[in-house]
Every structure is written in structure tokens, then in C-alpha cells.
Design a protein that fits this description.
With 210 residues, the chain is mainly alpha-helical. The protein contains 13 helices and no strands. The protein has three domains: 10-49, no CATH class; 63-148, no CATH class; 158-209, no CATH class. The longest helix has 25 residues, at 10-34.
Length: 210
Amino acid sequence: MWNHTGIPAQGSIFRNNENELHYVNNHFDNNSQNDNLPNTVRTLPNMVSFSLPMNRSTRLSYQDSNQNYNLDNDFWISFEQYLKNNYRISSIKPRFLYAKQYHQVLLEGNAQSLILLPNDKRLQVMKALSVLSKFMGCYDIWKEIKERYQLKWSDGNNSLHVFQTIVNNETNYDSMLKWVKDTCLQIPKSYANILIYCTLTGLRADEACQ
């Protein structure tokens, strides 16, 4: 039944819907009394439950291969020799001791012990672990740990200190040269030559004497 606007009358819609609903209910009741659901439908809950994602391990991918690292006495002897061949004498001892003390950070992937350290000591430990990771061939692991724990090579104040040093009139280039000249006049000539050499080359004192 249609009204003058061309839209079906509401009474007709309700009657049709009621008839269709009554037909569907009767059809479903008859089928449910006589027929069983197909096997594929009955097993659907089981299929869904098996397809749920399995619990993922929180262990890092490299932690299962820690047994490949045999950090015995021979290993540390070789590591110490590696330091002697590639690093300054003054840095060998702290690198070796801190690497031996904190090597579990690389094996376990846990750097919480580093976060609790004072800034200066943490930087020394980080340098030692960086060298150790290169020697062990797992530098990528160290970079991942460093990024995950947001370990920085500075305490965040170095850039401000450099800026203040540049703009500070007491630490500019002219004042530095004046300090070098005044100091060279007050020390023996052999020492003054070393100071001038370091100033021109940028070497540290121990590096200039080697």
C-alpha cells in the first residue's frame, strides 16, 4: 500500500515485517527440532580458540645464545691483551676492571645497574662495555641495550658548558694564549716546549710524551 508521496505506508511495512518475522521464527523452530548443526559450525568455537595469538616471550632474541660466550680466564687474558694493543695505557685498567665487573649487562640485557651509578662512573662503565662488546662481536647488542635504557654519553650539561665557555671572555682564545705565554715564562724550557707542542697539536700531555 503506497501513499501519495510514493513511500510505502507504515502500516504495510509493519504487517510485512511481522509476517516475515513469523515465517523466520517458524522456519528456525522447525529446523532446530529436526536437524543438527553441521560439524563445521559446531567446531567453530574450538577453531577460534586455537587461532588466538600465543603468549610472546619477553626475552630478547639474543639472550638464548649467551652460552656461546665462554668468559673464562683465557678470555679475560685475551681481552686485556686486546686493550694493550689498541688503547692508551692510562685507559687499560679502568676498561678492563669495569668490563669484568659489569659484563653481565651484555649477557642479560639488563642495564638497570648502570642507571643507578653516578654520571662519571656510568660513563666509564659504558666505555668499558662498548669496548668489550666490540671484542665479543656483539656491538649491535650493546647499541640495543643503550637505546632501550636511554643511556647517554653525556649528562646533558656539556652543550651548555661549551656555550658558556665560548661566550665567556675569561676563557676565549686570546686569554688562552696569554696564559700559555705567561706559564712558559715561569717553567723550565723543556716543559715549556711540551706545553707549546700540546697547544699547537691538540694532544694530551701523556700522548705528547709518548
